[in-house]
């Protein structure tokens, strides 16, 4: 199943099945969910039991899609997780995952603006497959890790390089956590629809050019390994998000570097999930 959230012009929030830019509201299928429901708490079986819509129940997707996951407790991100991307940034190939995070205030949905901060001149794009956790997970072995995943969505790890690199302590947090720096969407695709995430194509289109094009087969640390590693340290809860890293082709590695400008349009496209487009605007 693929599911999305959207907002009506009166502010009301609704959940719907999602297919290629079309939606079928769950209420049309006789499924009642309150507007503030968090579907990540319902478990994989709830999604499997959803009715299949008739062809004529699909309608054009509304203008305002919201992040498909409303309220994750954690947004965890993995850095330098594609071998070629680590090389293009001049970094060593990591021997253990590079982990950082974003605050919840970074989250936005498909179509929402990426706000380019006044205080940065080097905002960059990063297309990423995002894992959505479906069950409470602590000390999970890699061989069992897939059982803890609810599904996947497209994510954009927007990054202000001038706040990510060379700042005191070497931390990446500030450069990664400006408001609007984590668009996700357009939908959450559950594991029954995308059972094997180990070789899916991940692309970033910047305006009309494809600037990143790789597959998750290039991950240095695959998704089960990441879950095993992270759950040694933190308990993952339903709805928690893991951004799994970005392929080569980021703007900072171009000659000369190509950073995001007002009016640019970024589209993350992931095989089996869909496309997440966000325009850029000045703060
Ligand atoms: Zn990233």
Provide the helix percentage: 10-25%
Q: Quick one: CATH superfamily of the largest domain?
A: Fumarylacetoacetase-like, C-terminal domain
Low-confidence stretches: none
- % residues in beta strands: 25-35%
What can you tell me about this protein's structure?
The protein is mainly beta. It folds into two domains: 2-66, no CATH class; 75-282, Alpha-Beta Complex (Fumarylacetoacetate hydrolase, domain 2), CATH 3.90.850. Helices cover 10% and strands 34% of the residues. The chain has five helices and 19 strands. The strands form three sheets. Strands 1, 2, 3, 4, 5, 6, 7, 8, 11, 12, 14 and 17 form a twelve-stranded mixed sheet that branches. The model has no long low-confidence stretch (mean pLDDT 95). The chain binds zinc ion. Zinc ion is lined by residues 77, 126, 128, 157, 243, 245-246.
In short:
The chain is mainly beta and 283 residues long. The chain contains five helices and 19 strands. The chain folds into two domains: 65 residues, no CATH class; 208 residues, Fumarylacetoacetate hydrolase, domain 2.
Keywords:
single chain, 283 residues, mainly beta, Fumarylacetoacetate hydrolase, domain 2, 2 domains, twelve-stranded mixed beta sheet, five-stranded mixed beta sheet, 5 helices, binds zinc ion
Topology overview:
Elements lengths: L1 E6 L5 E7 L2 E4 L17 H6 L10 E2 L4 E2 L8 E5 L3 H6 L9 E5 L4 E2 L5 E3 L6 E2 L2 E7 L15 E8 L2 E2 H4 L8 H4 L5 E9 L10 E6 L2 E7 L7 H9 L9 E3 L21 E6 L3 E9 L1
Parallel strand pairs: 6-17, 8-14, 9-19
Antiparallel strand pairs: 1-2, 1-5, 1-14, 2-3, 3-4, 6-7, 10-13, 11-12, 11-17, 12-14, 15-16, 15-18, 18-19
Bound molecules: zinc ion.
């Amino acid at each position: 199943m693929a599911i999305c959230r959207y907002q009506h012009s009166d502010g009301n929030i609704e959940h719907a099945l999602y297919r290629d830019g079309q939606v079928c509201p769950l209420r049309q299928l006789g499924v009642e969910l309150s507007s503030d429901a968090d579907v990540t708490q319902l478990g994989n079986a709830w999604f499997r039991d959803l009715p299949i819509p008739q062809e004529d129940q699909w309608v054009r997707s509304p203008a305002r899609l919201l992040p498909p996951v409303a309220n994750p407790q954690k947004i965890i991100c993995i850095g330098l997780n594609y071998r070629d991307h680590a090389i293009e940034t001049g970094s060593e190939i990591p021997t253990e995952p590079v982990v950082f995070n974003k605050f919840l205030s970074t989250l936005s949905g498909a179509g929402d603006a990426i706000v380019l901060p006044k205080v940065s001149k080097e905002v960059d794009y990063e297309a990423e497959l995002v894992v959505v956790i479906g069950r409470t997970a602590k000390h999970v072995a890699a061989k069992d890790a897939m059982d803890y995943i609810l599904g996947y969505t497209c994510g954009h790890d927007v990054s202000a390089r001038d706040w990510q690199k060379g700042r005191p302590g070497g931390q990446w947090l500030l450069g990664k956590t400006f408001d609007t720096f984590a668009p996700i969407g357009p939908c959450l695709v559950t594991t029954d629809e995308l059972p094997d995430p180990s070789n899916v194509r991940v692309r970033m289109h910047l305006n009309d050019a494809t600037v990143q094009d790789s597959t998750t087969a290039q991950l240095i640390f695959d998704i089960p390994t990441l879950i095993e590693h992270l759950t040694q340290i933190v308990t993952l809860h339903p709805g928690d998000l893991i951004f799994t890293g970005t392929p080569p082709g980021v703007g900072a590695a171009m000659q000369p570097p190509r950073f995001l400008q007002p009016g640019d349009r970024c589209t993350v496209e992931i095989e089996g999930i869909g496309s997440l487009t966000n325009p850029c605007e000045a703060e």
